[in-house]
Amino acid sequence: xxxxxxxxxxxxFGVFQLDRKAGVLHKAGVKxxxxxQPFRVLVLLVERAGQVVxxxxxxxxxxxxxxxxxxxxxxxNAVKKVRDALGDSADNPRFxxxxxxxxxxxxxxxxxxxxxxxxxxxxxxxxxxxxxxxxGLAVIIVLVASAYWAWHRxxxxxxxxxxxxxxxxxPFDNLSRDPDQEFFSDGLTEEIITQLGKVNPVQLxxxxxxxxxxxxxxxxxxxxxxxxxxxxxxxxxxxxxEANRVRIAVELIxxxxxxxxxxxxxxxxxxxxxxxxxxxxxxxxxxxxxALAPEQRTxxxxxxxxxxxxYEAYLKGRYYWNKRTGDSMEKAAFYFEQAIEKDPGYSATxxxxxxxxxxxxWHGFASPAKALPKAYAAAQKAIEIDPQSAEAHxxxxxxxxxxxxxxxxxxxxxRALELNPQYANAHHWYxxxxxxxxxxxxxxxxxxRALELxxxxxxxxxxxGLRYYLARSYGLAIQQSRNxxxxxxxxxxAHLILxxxxxxxxxxKQGLDELQKAGSLSGGSPLYMAQLGVGRAxxxxxxxxxxxxxxxxxxxxxxxxxxxxxxxxxxxxNDKEQAYKWLEIAYRDRAVWMSxxxxxxxxxxIRSEARFQDLLRRVGLLA
Length: 623
Fold this sequence. Notes:
Layout: E1 10-13, E2 16-19, E3 24-27, E4 30-32, H1 36-47, E5 52-54, H2 55-62, H3 71-86, E6 96-99, E7 103-106, E8 111-112, H4 127-155, E9 165-169, E10 173-174, H5 182-197, E11 204-206, H6 209-212, H7 222-229, E12 233-242, E13 245-254, E14 259-269, H8 273-287, H9 294-297, H10 308-321, H11 326-342, H12 347-362, H13 368-385, H14 390-402, H15 406-419, H16 424-436, H17 440-453, H18 458-470, H19 474-487, H20 492-504, H21 508-521, H22 526-538, H23 542-555, H24 563-572, H25 576-588, H26 610-619
Parallel strand pairs: 9-11, 9-12, 10-12
Antiparallel strand pairs: 1-2, 1-8, 2-3, 3-4, 5-7, 6-7, 12-13, 13-14
Helix pairs in contact: 1-3, 5-8, 5-10, 10-11, 10-12, 11-12, 12-13, 12-14, 13-14, 14-15, 14-16, 15-16, 16-17, 16-18, 17-18, 18-19, 18-20, 19-20, 20-21, 20-22, 21-22, 22-23, 22-24, 24-25, 25-26
């Protein structure tokens, strides 16, 4: 099917790319299934972005005359399928708006990734119409290009500093014919990314795992993946695990011309896996003419051997940690502890265990009293084993942040970034610390840097939105959260920030809809329930807000519930005494979310009061 219209080539809107020539719609590099007529409807609407396309125009352009009687139903079905593909809604449209009794209008900003064609559609036959169309087309191109680049800057999908090479390691294929071995191929990919990230951060930027992971199993050409990730080089490969041996094949591709620069196969015992990873990363660096950083050359005695069972448990821990659910973090902690029993000399395992326990406390899956001492001990042990590990210092910084030990946290964050300026999580967590401390501009710089390094990371993208939210820039928070929802409509945290931002703007219906969706997607997390309670209270639904408080108190008899969330609901209800009561309980429990006390918009109404200022002083957030 060949589409016609004023914009040739690939058309971009949000995370979608419409390749008209190939007749394909992609979302973040993944092909979206869309049948012929729905696809043609989408093309016509996108071509006429911002304009109403009448039902009659759609019929004449797409539907054959002999099916006129079935046109209405056919068009309705086609538009529904397009909306389903885009994750759009007729009631709250972000892409396709229904114009009553007339037709449809495409309302999202669009931009052409290739230069527009000089050929106009054949239907522009009249000179007057043709000239008007040329003028209109010029205006449209300027407007959509401006809108596209505004979105592009907002999403922060920017290329790192000029002169630095960018490399992406795509997920290795699992050739073991055993889906239970998927953790091994995923883990090996992540370990090679980590190794390459340490080669020379000044000369080489390596795309983080969570962004590269979105291309797992993708059949897209290297040139397109490279363009979407802004990468100069791609590494792809496969791994086969057989008992205590591992076989991997690795290929290095230059993106601009899809040239294979190097390929190699390895067959090693699992105990030598670290040496194998080291060899692969150094060979790739040599092939793209990146010198080892001085600290990588000095005293390089070669990687240690690992215990095969311990290393397998470590990779399982990483696999479950990356899923970021309560159950998966508990599984990850179990496997990290198992790995430590088998091989107590591997720093990365302790760092992973520290991050798991920090995550369990932060997400409200475990009490700070239970989780944070474990996190602190593990992070300190990681540094003891490897003082040059950026990951270990970042893990310790995160724990100190949660423990309100602010000075120590900043020292450790800076040390982590000094050791590895490309560690996206260190920038991400440090940005949160800076936001907590009220250093808004610095926080946004760190958040954007994290997103540059890991542009498709859902949590990092969501937390850019949180940076805006805590700075009271609710419109920007909504736009950024929308970008993340476009990447993954089922990501609960993005809907949470979106809902909170709408509520603070006074758009209560939209806010409550998003907060309910976030709660549902989270599986009923108390943390998300509390924010719905806040939204209901601010929207004037006081009875419903108090019902949420009762539900949270009931849940607290079975599992940990942060008292900070209950304090937030009472503050939103303007019940000051109860708000202060629960804030004192949260202070006593060292509730992790008390860190946000100085910047949380929910407490703006009582922020200047003496009792609140005293709390800030005790938490260390007021000099």
